[in-house]
Amino acid sequence: MIxxxxxxxxxQPYDRIFNFSAGPGSLPxxxxxxxxxxxxxxxxxxxxVMEMSHRGKHYDxxxxxxxxxxxxxxxxxxxxxxxxxxxxxxxxxxxxxxxxSVEGKTPNYIDTGYWGHQSIKDAQKLGRVHIAxxxxxxxxxxxxxxxxxxxxxxSYVYFTSNETVGGVDFLRDPKFDSDALIVxxxxxxxxxxxxxxxxxxxxxxxxxxxxGPAGITTLIVSPRAMEIAKSKDLPLMxxxxxxxxxxxxxxxxxxxxxxxxxxxxKWLLAKGGVDAIAPYNERKAKLVYDQIDASGGFYKGHAxxxxxxxxxxTFKCPSPxxxxxxxxxxxxxxxxxxxxxxxxxxxxxxxYNAFPEEGAKLLAEFMADFAKRNG
Length: 375
Ligand SMILES: Cc1ncc(COP(=O)(O)O)c(C=O)c1O
Known about the structure:
This protein is of the alpha/beta class. The chain has helices at about 30-40, 55-75, 90-100, 115-125, 225-230, 240-245, 255-270, 275-295, 320-330, 355-375; strands spanning about 20, 80-85, 105-110, 130-135, 155-160, 160-165, 170, 180-185, 200-205, 215-220, 300, 310-315, 335, 345-350. It has 2 domains: about 35-270, Aspartate Aminotransferase, domain 2 (3-Layer(aba) Sandwich); about 275-375, Aspartate Aminotransferase, domain 1, CATH 3.90.1150. The strands form 4 sheets. It has a 7-stranded mixed beta sheet, with helices on both faces. Strands 11-12-14 form a 3-stranded antiparallel beta sheet. The longest helix has 22 residues, at about 275-295. Pyridoxal-5'-phosphate binds near residues 185, 187 and 188.
């Protein structure tokens, strides 16, 4: 059965689809258009950004402006360092313990799902780790209250502010009962809502969801975290202080990616920054969660209501067969990449900053129609 006749494909510029991918995610059309227009000859230089020397003045301008605009968007104080590194967010699973471990203390982890789990596994290869909290017993469906984790002599406290696979978000700046360094993997919700940077020592995020294409990971590092990292003698590419000294041009950076992220930051600033995009993201997510709640149990949401992610909405239909049918029918309306993560199954609708509200509306209408036809 195909979706009801009232549901129409919503024409999108350049015949683009609604891309619900968990990452790389949708990019703003305006940014892609600018990249296209500037591709062959950037600002009269006679070359593309890809062909410029990373030590030349043109690229330096692009790079430093991107760093400054990211600082502005985050509201990060001047004494915090902003880094752009390679190796994906996954490399930080190793670099966090390498840069921040302290003898006689133990890294403490809060495990709220798939990505927290990956970080713990990597940290364990480098030393002892204490798991201060885990939501495994409830199927990784929630984040802890501030008082729940049980810390043990922490060198740092690590958590994932939004678990991309489960769709579980803290939705707040936690105030844990610890004065240790606070490290946050914000890969899937950075710049989607306001964070008080001063409450964190390290925030890191892969760019490919809310900042641009895959290829850089941005880090915001507090002075006290940088002091500890400075006491280590790490190889160039593993050392945060060495990256900071060189404004992340300690080797050849992925120049084209930094350029596109820079355009993305300008796009976001022109929209009014994080304060303006946060209610937009909340509105999009609410359209979909409302359908889950109104479906009389047809759709089962994964996260507890208090921790429902605005970026990754995860739910299941009454059977795996209906999940498959949901995905097939959705494709007919140009809605793609709604399949849940391979470890969970079900449906996952990821709607980052650049995902259009029309796509959320269409998904909500489709969900109501699908439940009616298959309930
Ligand atoms: C929360 C979170 N952390 C880490 C990662 C790993 O990112 P990367 O693929 O850039 O290593 C992801 C990827 O989806 C993620 O969602």
